[in-house]
Amino acid sequence: MLERWCKTRIETIRARALPVVGAEHLWASLRGALRLLRAVFLVVACLVTANLVLGQFPWTKPFSKRVFELVLDPLKTMWRGITDSLPNLAFLVVLFIVFRYLLRLINLVFESIEHRTLSWKGFDPEWAGPTFRIVRFLVVAFGLVIAYPYLPGSGSDAFKGVSLFIGVVFSLGSSESFRTSWRDIP
User: Fold this and answer.
1) What pLDDT, in 10s, does the model give residues 49-97?
2) How would DSSP label each residue in 106-145?
3) How far apart are CA 183 and CA 178, in angstroms?
């Protein structure tokens, strides 16, 4: 019934021909939301039914009390994890904004040097582009070092293992490219 009502609404939208959102995309997202709502309803209905059925018999009564805990405990843990990491995420957002404007300022300085509106004694304007790329890499690396402890899960062993793996792969790749670049020199 809800689907029929939505289809008539979407047909009126299609008749108006909204250029921003196509009726098919709107219908697909609405259908996905309805499926999600139906799945949540079915899970809740199954949990309530299991709770009622298990609560009828004395030997399964302790299990009836645990039925909702099986679903709600992981949800509580995820919610607690999200709320506990909000201050760290706020710090990361502020850090990102600060470093973004810092990189823009550095880019502005090096572009001024490249266009000869700003000059440093002993610094050729042709060096501005490569030097900016090196400085940008160092600033981004410094920002990542500052941000690392504030990343959610950075203290876990899995995160440390993945970081170590990426570091090893990066160092092996860079050493291999260094070796092949020396072989290419005549």
Assistant:
1) 988 888 888 888 888 878 888 888 988 999 998 898 899 999 999 999 9
2) HHHHHHHHHTTSS-BTTB-GGGHHHHHHHHHHHHHHHHHH
3) 9
- Which long-range contacts link 152-159 to residues 24+ away (Cβ below 8 Å)? 152/81, 152/85, 152/88, 152/89
Residue 185 phi, psi (nearest 5)? -75, 125
- What's the average model confidence in pLDDT over 42-53? 89
Q: Which position has the token pair 């957002």?
A: 93
The span from the CA of 147 to the CA of 163, in Å, is 14
How far apart are alpha carbons 94 and 107 in whole angstroms? Answer: 20
Three-class SS state of 86: helix
Report the pLDDT value the prediction gives residue 93, as an integer from 0 to 100.
Answer: 95
Cα separation, 130 vs 125, whole angstroms: 10
pTM: 0.55
Rg over alpha carbons for the chain, rounded to the nearest Å, is 29
For 67, other C-beta atoms within 10 Å of its C-beta total: 19
DSSP secondary structure code for residue 123 in this structure: B
Query: Do 51 and 67 meet the contact criterion of CB atoms below 8 Å apart?
Result: yes
Quick one: average pLDDT of 133-151?
91
C-beta atoms surrounding 113 within 10 Å: 21
Whole-angstrom distance, CA of residue 160 vs CA of residue 162: 6
pLDDT band at 152 (very low <50, low <70, confident <90, very high): confident
